[in-house]
Design a protein that fits this description.
alpha/beta, Rossmann fold, 6-stranded parallel beta sheet, 3-stranded parallel beta sheet, 13 helices, 9 strands
């Protein structure tokens, strides 16, 4: 999540849930804090994650249209404070994306992607660190669409979702974002499907962005921050694989990027290619992937993991210091 959304959930007095069962209940307001109204076309989803005050069964668009005339605008001080918090958050994210890393900073990859997204783009994400960076750094503008793993609760969604999106919206650019774990689960196989069908699409604008860090990165950080366990290499390390080279072998485009300076040009080439194109970014595995507001328990678990002989402890400490310095500079500005 983000610092502004965490602040919003922590202090809101009303929660409106529209067309979502929101599986991550730990991020919702404390029970009893907010009056909750939920709108869903499926009554089975109502009150599933949070004790709701009012449940409304119906189409979200029609139900919201019926509710709007009943709203009375009050003072906007709280909203204005949140808007300022959002502006500060975007400045901090930009500063973090510029932080030097041993390999490519994954945050930089998504900052470069966000500013290049064509109008009407359809984005598909997976499960894992790539989706967290996507959610934080990419600005989905009006007219775009985005879909994540969500209730599928599994890796391996990005490329199949993107193929489905391209068949449904052939004239729109489609971007699939996946980690190397998801690509090895089924993404590289689905590239065969892309190579078979892409000539049937109205346009060839189909980009697959792969973060290659040779690790199941999200789970590694969850082990550190939630359970206080160091990285367990036998389960977390995954084989290196030449994703871009493999894409080219299938007749698609493919670019492997090893430097921060190469990220933007590689994405430019992918979006202007005459065929589906895969961009493989060699990213740093030790960029801290922590919540915007760290609890005492999470901090305690994190330091416990490092003290237990985590093989990447020194690199993580270096990278954490760099990120803290970036935040200090942003606060000073």
């Amino acid at each position: 999540g983000t610092a502004p959304t965490a602040e919003m959930m922590a202090h809101c007095d009303t929660l409106l849930m529209v067309g979502t069962s929101f599986p991550y209940s730990e991020f919702l307001p404390e029970e009893g804090q907010a009056c909750a109204v939920q709108i869903d076309i499926d009554p089975h989803n109502l009150g599933l994650r949070y004790p709701t005050t009012l449940n409304l069964v119906g189409d979200s668009k029609a139900t919201l249209a019926a509710l709007l005339p009943r709203l009375v605008r009050k003072n906007r001080r709280w909203r204005e404070r949140l808007e300022e918090s959002v502006r500060d958050w975007w400045s901090l994210l930009h500063a973090r994306a510029m932080v030097e890393c041993e390999r490519i900073n994954p945050q930089l990859v998504f900052e470069e992607l966000s500013r290049r997204l064509p109008e009407g783009a359809v984005l598909t994400g997976d499960a894992g660190s790539s989706t967290m960076w996507l959610a934080r750094h990419v600005k989905v503008r009006a007219g775009m669409m985005a879909s994540l793993s969500g209730t599928l609760a599994s890796m391996g969604s990005a490329v199949p979702y993107a193929i489905a999106a391209k068949f449904a919206f052939g004239g729109r650019p489609v971007v699939a974002v996946a980690g190397d774990g998801a690509m090895q689960m089924n993404g590289i196989n689905e590239l065969i499907t892309v190579s078979k069908y892409w000539r049937e699409w109205a346009t060839p604008n189909f980009v697959v962005l792969v973060l290659n860090n040779r690790e199941l990165n999200m789970v590694t950080w969850e082990m550190r921050a939630l359970s206080g366990n160091p990285k367990f290499a036998p389960s977390q390390d995954i084989p290196d694989f030449p994703y871009a080279e493999y894409a080219r072998a299938l007749g698609l485009g493919g670019t492997r990027v090893n430097t921060p300076e190469g990220v933007g040009p590689a994405l430019d080439a992918a979006f202007s290619a005459d065929r589906p194109h895969l961009v493989e970014a060699i990213t740093d595995v030790n960029v801290p992937m922590l919540p915007p507001q760290i609890s005492f328990e999470q901090a305690e678990s994190f330091f416990a993991a490092l003290s237990k002989g985590d093989e990447d402890a020194a690199a993580i400490v270096r990278q954490s210091v760099r990120e803290m310095l970036a935040k200090t500079q942003t606060d000073g500005d």
